[in-house]
Amino acid sequence: MKKSFVIFLISLFILQSCSVNSEIIYHKDAASTTITDIDTKEFMTEMMAMTPDSLKQKEFGEMDRLPTSWTSMYDLAKQEGKLKTENPDSIRIMKKIFMKSTKEDQKLAGFSFKMEHFAPEDYQALKNFTKTEKLPFDQNIYNNWDGKALTINTDNFNLKSIEEAIRTKSSKEEAEKIGGMMIMFFKNIGTTIKFESPIKSISGKHDWLKQIDDHSIRIEYDLKAIYDKDIKLKNADKKIIIVTE
To answer: Signal peptide position in this chain (predicted)?
Structure first.
């Protein structure tokens, strides 16, 4: 992945609140596809307004050249001459993770990540890969799906992967303050979970989770409740099991 993009993304989280929306599609073959969209439109508008014209090309020129169509992490690293690994599992994972930028009126408006058709064994390889490559993925990707039933561990209703990505680019003093500042970084964050087959039953309840149609549920995070341990939820089961037809 391009270094400039990673640095920009981390700066985005630190300097300005933004919106993050994920969609996880569960396939009948026990694989899943995840897309995460990061809306940076307001941030970019403010940053461009504060940057002198003489510096805009230097500060934003390389980001303007980021791909606007899905491009794998592997291809990005190869293009930059920065492929750091020969591990076949890591290369396989890099070829299945894609990113692209979004533009509106020729201006950078956001970024998207996609994890294409990940099988259960891919997620184990991903855990090893992200020990060194910190990426802002939805923690819910690690919930267990067998092609028929999804077991959601509500401990995954957190921002740990984003926190870790920020910490890797922060000083020690800044990293220690990340937890208390996350509410300031985001306007909202949520995840839509979709199934190819209709939902048959849902057992377990959580205040942040609701069914929106026959194939989908929605998780809307309460950011204040994540970091304020004094806030008590009415429904907060540790496991939610969704069975499909």
So the answer is: 1-22
Give the total number of structural domains in the chain: 1
Task: Find the domain containing 30 and state its range.
Answer: 18-244
What's the pLDDT at 126?
A: 93
Tell me which of 198 and 136 has the higher pLDDT.
Answer: 198
Neighbours of 61 (CB within 10 A): 10
Is the model's pLDDT at 147 over the cut of 90? yes
Per-residue pLDDT tens over the stretch 68-112: 899 999 998 888 787 888 889 999 999 999 999 888 777 777 889
Q: Give residue 2's pLDDT.
A: 41
Measured CA to CA, the distance from residue 59 to residue 166 in angstroms comes to 20
Contact criterion met (CB below 8 Å) for 244 and 197 = yes
| 9 lies in some domain | no
Task: List all residues 6 or more positions away from 223 whose beta carbon is below 8 Å from its beta carbon.
Answer: 159, 182, 183, 186, 188, 189
CB under 8 A, 24+ apart: contacts of 205-211: 205/235, 205/237, 205/240, 206/154, 206/157, 206/233, 206/235, 206/236, 206/237, 206/240, 207/233, 207/234, 207/235, 207/236, 208/157, 208/233, 209/152, 209/154, 209/240
Task: List Cβ neighbours of 7 (8 Å cut-off, separation of 6 or more).
Answer: 169
